[in-house]
Amino acid sequence: MSETVRTHARVRASELVGRNWLNTGGKSLDLEALRGKIVLLDFWTFCCINCLHVLDELRPLEQQYSDVLVTVGVHSPKFEHEADPVALAAAVERYEIHHPVLDDPELDTWKAYTARAWPTLVVIDPEGYIVAHLSGEGHADGLAVLIPELIAEHEAKGTLHRGSGPYVAPEATSGTLRFPGKALFLPPGRGSTALAGTADGGTPAGAAASVAAEKGSWLVTDTGHHRLVELATDFETVLATFGSGTKGYTDGPAAGDTASAQFNEPQGLVLLPEDVAAKAGYDVVIADSVNHRLRGLSLTDGKASTLAGNGIQRLLETGPARVDEEGAGFSGSLGTDPLDVALSSPWDVVWSRKLNAVVVAMAGTHQIFSFDPVSGAVSIIAGNGLEGLLDGPAHESWFAQSSGLAEDADGNIWVADSETSALRKLNIADDASITVESAVGKGLFDFGFRDGPGAEARLQHPLGVTVLPDGSVAIADTYNGAVRRYDPASGTVSTLARGLAEPSDVIVDHTESAGSEPLLVVVEANKHQLVYVPIPKEAQQVDEGASQTQRPKSPVAAGALDLTVRFAAPTGQKLDDRWGDPTQLKISSTPPELLVAGGGTSVGLLRTLELSPDVPEGVLHITARAAACDGPETEDGEIPDHAACHLYQQDWGIPVVLQADGDTELVLDLRGMD
């Protein structure tokens, strides 16, 4: 039987060093104050969808072991904006993090624990020693075995101290909206008030409803309140609410104070064409992100329903991306029953006239899906599931946490690809074949605030996109607090507006509510509001530079570099070697000339690389995979039939600098020890 990952030498945990602490009532913590508790360090950054998945994976463990387990979020930022303490405090509130968080903007604690990827988990025992070092998501089952082992061991030794932890809840933000995500215009006749015929012109709300019946209204995902809100064009008058406001998952009546339907951080939403809505039986498709489902909302009777998704985060059910030697991933239909399909953090949705389907930004798997409201068919239409920026045929392309979608006049789909700080485009041919191209963006770790030619321009984690009346594209450049404009005709980027608080969506408003000229409606998430923004006649030209995520560079020597990825299956699991070696490494480099030999995909977690002496620095891209299955071994040591199996995978981008006295070996932990 495989043992749980445990240290073979007692390694003392490093002290927790950073700028500030959150969720502690103003107190600073150190390891001495946490002695006697099992401490779980969660190295995260608030832009990272995998980190958000881990937050949800850990919640049941935190609740079950609240008297002995203390989770400490170590926030080690990727983007410049994430180093802003105000932005971090908002993110901690937004994602309802109920444990202490250490602000680590200089990556001091990150470096002390040799973290190399977001997310990374480190387990510290009640005596202050490291017992496990885990990369990626999907480790909840292993932790559910390890934590009781540590409890039993340290209760027997008398070193476990039960009692409440150091978490202190911050003061909650109040208001009609709380961290709104996306917005949708409801034309006259499509909004709930007009359909229900409830306008009462004798009251302020009734007067607004009368205006809504003439000019339309706005449906907003009130993400932090886990509901939808229909607003009048003044963005203040509430015409209707949908969802109980309690985080959860329930279908049924969604409208008003008696609503029982529940959502969990809803994000994107799209209004179906009237003929499609009549066939489907609902009007709006909602990306219910943390429930990993697409939901439907009927504005006629106010009922919510589930359209697609079984509620299981797709990476946990199907495993990480699998590609062939040419880099192509699976594309096409995912079966006949949409409720049996696993989704992963759907973030935005848009109607495609060419595909006659809803296009879905599946942020959690770095792919683009489609959903047919009439047949229920769910398909993968772009992205092989690998995270990064790669153009070309749809099934070979790479995306990185796509978060915003918009259709242009030609029926092509523009994509705000947040983790590559990129603007991408799905070119959809008449035969529905798709190719992917990038208008702005360079890679996973390149960002900035720079206007000019698209190849040189830089964004910072954009979440929203819309097409302007002249055919240019407006981008909610979220971490730059700006709305940017890309002109496909000239291939240039400019700036339309600045000084916004994490704009998460941008939409063109044609209602003439504030004048005769079209305006932009911006969802200003961190100010909990929608605002009108004029489209300026002359856009700004900004150049505040291009940046790269500054992670510590590992000094290595040119020539042979011995790579070891450590993995040990949790107690109760065994490596699945029934069909050969269940482990795999895939290795490449930037620039490609850095790697003379040792690249490519092959089995095993050990490999010798050869680094060129002519390339002074670069990045090694390493993907490790291991498969393990549940259940006690049979007498002959085999895994029993029908055992549940788990696929562990992590992608690393390791910055290296070549030095004569550099290291000749590199050790990474998939599920192992420092």
Brief overview:
GO terms for molecular function: isomerase activity. This is Thiol-disulfide isomerase/thioredoxin. The protein is mostly beta strands.
Blueprint of the fold:
Blueprint: E1 11-12, E2 20-22, E3 38-44, H1 49-64, E4 69-75, H2 85-94, E5 101-103, H3 108-112, E6 120-124, E7 129-135, H4 140-157, E8 183-186, H5 192-196, H6 204-215, E9 217-222, E10 227-231, E11 238-242, E12 252-253, E13 266-271, H7 274-280, E14 284-288, E15 293-297, E16 303-308, H8 314-318, E17 332-333, E18 346-352, E19 357-362, E20 367-371, E21 378-382, E22 392-393, E23 402-407, E24 413-417, E25 422-428, E26 434-440, E27 446-450, E28 452-453, E29 464-467, E30 473-477, E31 482-487, E32 492-497, E33 503-509, E34 519-524, E35 529-534, E36 543-548, E37 554-556, E38 559-567, E39 573-575, E40 583-590, E41 595-597, E42 600-603, E43 606-611, E44 617-630, E45 645-658, E46 665-672
Parallel strand pairs: 3-4, 4-5, 37-45, 38-46
Antiparallel strand pairs: 1-7, 2-5, 3-6, 6-7, 7-46, 8-9, 9-10, 10-11, 12-16, 13-14, 14-15, 15-16, 17-21, 18-19, 19-20, 20-21, 22-26, 23-24, 24-25, 25-26, 27-36, 28-32, 29-30, 30-31, 31-32, 33-34, 34-35, 38-43, 39-44, 40-42, 40-44, 41-43, 44-45
